[in-house]
Amino acid sequence: MATRVAVIGGGCSGLAAIKCCLDEGLEPVCFERTDDLGGLWHYTDHVRNGQACVMRSTVINTSKEMMCFSDFPIPKHYPNFMHNTLVWQYFKDYAAHFGLGDYIRYNVEVVLVKRAEDFAKTGRWNLQIRDHKSGEERTETFDAVLVCSGHHAEKHEPSFPGLSDFKGRVVHSHDYKEPSQYVGKRILIIGIGNSGGDLAVELSRVYLSTRRGTWVVNRVSGTAGFPIDIVNTRRLKLMLANMVPRSLLNSVVTSHLNKRLDHDLYSLTPSYPPTAQHPMVNDDLGNRIACGSVKVKADVKRFTETGVEFEDGTFEDNIDLVLLATGYTFGFPFIEKGVVDVKENRLPFYKYMFPPDLEHNTLAMIGCIQPLGAIMPISELQCRLATRVFKGDVKLPSASEMWTDIREKEAEMARRYVKSQRHTIQVDYIAFMDELAELNGCKPDIVELFKKDLRLAMHVLTGPCTPYQYRLVGPGKWDGAADAIYTTMDRVRFPLATRPLPEGSDIVRLQRFVLKIVAVILVMIILRIVFFV
């Protein structure tokens, strides 16, 4: 059984890893190469090589109830979509509450992770570490390793004909901090993911070049203005969606997205349906296009010394700056060759965590996934599973069975998503969380819940699939989970209730409440027929 566990990285995944180790009676040692925790969410004005950082203005794309750790709800007065400073503060509060900081060694970098000489017998690892302050290098041995360094490390910088002749500046979004130095510039942004969209709406006089186009999703839904992930990430909705042919589902989603922003009209429509690629989350792009500060263009054909020609034959001259919002490639150069093999951003790991061919499952990658939802709860659940595997409480399948699961997932992703480095680690939030939870013994059983606690069952089935659901049963059960589920919408509403409402609003709310009660009764009748007849 593993006892001493190395945690590489002190971001959100690393913090969850430390806590899960402590929960399971293990001894964690976290190595963080910077001077503070938070990883990607620790904003600094200077560029940190090899480590991504949010922009000064970044607001998280997932709402607070869907992104929190499963036993530490975010304060009710925090906005539903938090500025990066509040996300970082939440991580600091989490670390302080559970005493995680005592286990973090700051300004220490892991240079090499290598199997110990007795690995075949013990599964242990040697870590070569470097202290950035003293310059000292030394080797320490651990029973297991949790790699929590994320997948936003190495910049992906594609080449284009003529780019080397371009006289203006070329900057990757990794190195962008805030807009003041770009005021008055004519800027070409290449890439239309979330970073490309954030850059486009923050800058003026922007040409936004895209190879495929994108579907744009707002943070706020059309359902009473609630966060879109609160509205859409629900078990009942997933069950219903899985009953519908994908072509029909895509048609419905396309119609819904075009009601808010006609993607044809705004030159955004991609050549793929909504469920075949990761959408852009952006609340302001349509407005910026409408007022002319952003112009959507085709893919780049070639650069000249001062301008750019696009694939549709159009040309823009006097470009001052090219911003590459082209994402990242990821790998693990600090891990011994032959242990981890990453090609074209593909991770051949069981549950995107465990290399299947190791003699001992004492190495786990955490957070190397791209969910349609928040990454923090998934990372936490991966850590909960990994630490119990290290202890010997959970036994993983054989190597051949793990490879079968890996290939099935790769085939499913290839079938559903457009071929892209962005979609190699795509997972469905609820389905993947349930997979991890089932392995770990903490997946909520809907049928059993209906037999024991009807109110809780209805919340779990029809309400937002919050991280608290995975603390209701099994290892790591939290006594506050049910109450956190019941009060989810209270915390969603709280930061919005900032003034007294005029007379008559109570009647409208009462009408909505009655409609909800009727809907709940109908759902209960249907479920009784399905599960108990």
UniProtKB/TrEMBL annotation:
One of its GO terms (biological process) is lipid metabolic process. Its main location: endoplasmic reticulum. GO terms for cellular component: endoplasmic reticulum membrane. Pfam families: FMO-like (PF00743). The chain crosses the membrane at residues 513-531. Keywords: Endoplasmic reticulum, FAD, Flavoprotein, Lipid metabolism, Membrane, Methylation, Microsome, Monooxygenase, NADP, Oxidoreductase, Phosphoprotein, Transmembrane, Transmembrane helix. It catalyses: trimethylamine + NADPH + O2 = trimethylamine N-oxide + NADP(+) + H2O; hypotaurine + NADPH + O2 + H(+) = taurine + NADP(+) + H2O; octan-3-one + NADPH + O2 + H(+) = pentyl propanoate + NADP(+) + H2O; hypotaurine + NADH + O2 + H(+) = taurine + NAD(+) + H2O. The keyword Plastid does not apply. Its EC number is 1.-.-.-. Gene3D superfamilies: FAD/NAD(P)-binding domain. PANTHER family: DIMETHYLANILINE MONOOXYGENASE. Belongs to the FMO family. This is Flavin-containing monooxygenase. It comes from Batillaria attramentaria.
